[in-house]
Amino acid sequence: MRKAEKTYDVCIVGSGAGGGMAAYVLTKAGANVLLLEAGPEWYATKDSKMLVPEYSSPRRGGSTKTKPFGEFDGCIGGWEIEGEPYTRAPGTNFDWWRARMLGGRTSHWGRISLRFGPDDFRGKSRDGLGDDWPIGYGDLAPYYDQVDELIGVFGSHEGLYNHPDGRFLPPPKPRCYELMIKQACDHLGVTCIPSRLSIITEPIHGRAACHYCGQCGRGCGTASNFSSPDVLIAPALKTGKLTLVCNAMAREVTVGQDGLAQGVAYIDKTTNTERHASARVVVLAASACESARILLNSKSAGFPQGLANSSGVVGKYLTDTTGAGVSGFIPKMMDHVPHNEDGVGGAHIYSPWWLDNAKLDFPRGYHIEMGGGLDSPGYGFMGGIQEYPPGGGYGTQLKDDYRRYYGATVGFSGRGEMIPNADSYCELDPNVVDRYGIPVLRFHWKWSDHELNQVKHMQETFRALIADMGGTVFDPMPTKEQGYGIAPGGRIIHELGCVIMGNDPGSSVLNAHCQAHDCKNLFVADGGPFVSQADKNPTWTILALSMRTSEYIAQQRAAGAL
Ligand SMILES: Cc1cc2nc3c(=O)[nH]c(=O)nc-3n(C[C@H](O)[C@H](O)[C@H](O)COP(=O)(O)OP(=O)(O)OC[C@H]3O[C@@H](n4cnc5c(N)ncnc54)[C@H](O)[C@@H]3O)c2cc1C
Ligand code: SF4
Q: Quick one: what percent of the chain has pLDDT higher than 90?
């Protein structure tokens, strides 16, 4: 192995939410940082197709195998990546979305930016299930505040105990169909408040305010939403302290005789050669499962089951958010007066979890994401006009029907908390390697009744809301045998855990600072350290946790401990 001549203060693997934040904080603290990223360079401000009209393409923006979220979507990666397989144990239904680009999934994510609440860090203490985190909301609150101010998030001050308010920019007003949804929510006692999205509605830090084109998933050409390259990596580069190496696929963390991390062995994808980067501190932020994979592949005499894995817990506690969706046709929204429903690329309202689980047959909650309206129609929009009474046909009649029905549908998606279980984990597949010769992950997955009962509740709630709006649901209620319509594991793309934090080195990989129990100069700064999910999307917590971990690294370096 050829060693790089230079030893960096810190080598970070992965440039998404977690890695971008680590690069930002550590370079600002004066460290010489090397950032290894498996994909190519990509900045939304240069590369996004934000304002390309759907009709400019023969495909009308329709999805492809490599662009499942639409032809102009910002992400390079997907459910399957050529030459980089993963496998599933028999009976496992789990899909793994991977980005391979600067900024990772922040190039096209949904930007729903929710803090975890005080209860979310102490699940076991509340109901005996899963585990408590080694930190509480109070430990992360100052970092959430800083993330809010650095990146920008809009929202409203509601004073809800387990949905803490942040340092919000003003939220946009609800659209017409969102007001109608809110009416139904109010009627049925479902809390419904303005969304909390990391989209800036006022200019901050030299970034322009959102101009409401609604195309966030393509990447924002004016950096008005959060993506790691434009908001974190570009300023980190400006410090002169960051060396960015793209197309660098990390294989393993190398370890010296002293048991400390020496650096990272990686494949330079442009030349297909093996390289090594030396560093005094290694931070893995390649996404939860990929960081576990790197650790499991980092085998040495001192760490025969993989680095930082003396507990055998690396790969365990894999969770995803639960998900189910119901959409409905609302006749009273037909033939509406044409009006402008432009807005941010996402809903302007949402429902945080509003009920008491002690009175329900499932232990943890979910939030509701709403959809509908009149954004620019793309290929296959409305998903089958023949379903609408009496829609379908040919020629002028068909075009008229599209005009009458468009905007007369609403959708509800539930996003809930899964309890970690022993049957859901990843490990190395002993028989399969990727195109670089790196052993791949094999997934095991099972939902329990906790999740199935929760999703049944989602279905019933969404159907009740649609009925309250005078609407019709085309799909029948799924049965228990159909899992009540629960999305397969991984499909909500909130996979967390696999490198969990905890106070006990026998049952966790990292301590409360996301520092490996077994290797003091190794840290993890993505979704890997999460002890549990919550009824919230995870990325705001990944960012806050990465900021906290990075500040700790900077303090330890200043104290000479690293
Ligand atoms: C369509 C979509 C919508 C989403 N919406 C939301 C939302 O609304 N709210 C929310 O909170 N979350 C959302 N998420 C999830 C969110 O994107 C992730 O939680 C977040 O990006 C995870 O950050 P990360 O740093 O762990 O990983 P990523 O952002 O995936 O970054 C990992 C990086 O590591 C790189 N990498 C991987 N392996 C290697 C390797 N071996 N060597 C070198 N580099 C490597 C990858 O190329 C990538 O750049 C969404 C995700 C998707 C796909
Ligand atoms: S809606 Fe706003 S934040 Fe999203 S892409 Fe358009 S301008 Fe950017």
A: 88
Binding pocket residue ranges, ligand 1, CB within 6 Å? 13-19, 36-39, 69, 97, 99-101, 104-106, 108-112, 248-250, 285-287, 290, 294, 493-494, 526-527, 537-539, 542
DSSP 8-state code for residue 199:
B
Digit-coded pLDDT (tens) for 271-280:
999 999 999 9
Residue 555 has pLDDT above 50, yes or no: yes
| H or E stretch covering 23 | helix 17-28
Q: From residue 209, how far is each of 36, 442, 536 by CA, in Å?
A: 31, 43, 25
H or E segment and range at residue 102: none
pLDDT at 212 over 50: yes
Peptide bond into 390 cis (omega under 30): yes
CB neighbour class for 464 (10 Å; exposed up to 12, middle 13-18, buried from 19): middle
Pocket (CB within 6 angstroms of ligand 2): 50, 199, 210-216, 220, 222, 224-225, 344-345
Give the per-residue pLDDT at 398.
87
- For the entire predicted model, the pTM comes to 0.97
For 357, the 3-state DSSP assignment is helix
**Inter-residue contact 289 to 318 (CB < 8 Å):** yes
pLDDT band at 460 (very low <50, low <70, confident <90, very high): very high
Contact indicator for 22, 549 with CB cutoff of 8 Å:
yes
- Using 50, 70 and 90 to split pLDDT, how confident is the model at 4? very low
Report the C-alpha gap between 30 and 41 in whole angstroms. Answer: 24
1 has a pLDDT exceeding 90: no
**Cα(391)–Cα(393) distance, rounded to whole angstroms?**
7
Residue 277 φ/ψ, nearest 5 degrees: -115, 130
* 47 φ, ψ (degrees, to nearest 5): -110, -5
What phi and psi values does residue 289 have, to the nearest 5 degrees? -70, -35
pLDDT at 95 over 70: yes
Residue 464 neighbours by CB under 8 Å, 6+ apart: 188
Which residue has the CA at smallest separation from atom 21 of ligand 1? Answer: 105
Please, what sign has the CA dihedral across residues 379, 383, 384, 388? negative
Q: What is the pLDDT of residues 477-490, one digit of tens each?
A: 999 999 999 999 99
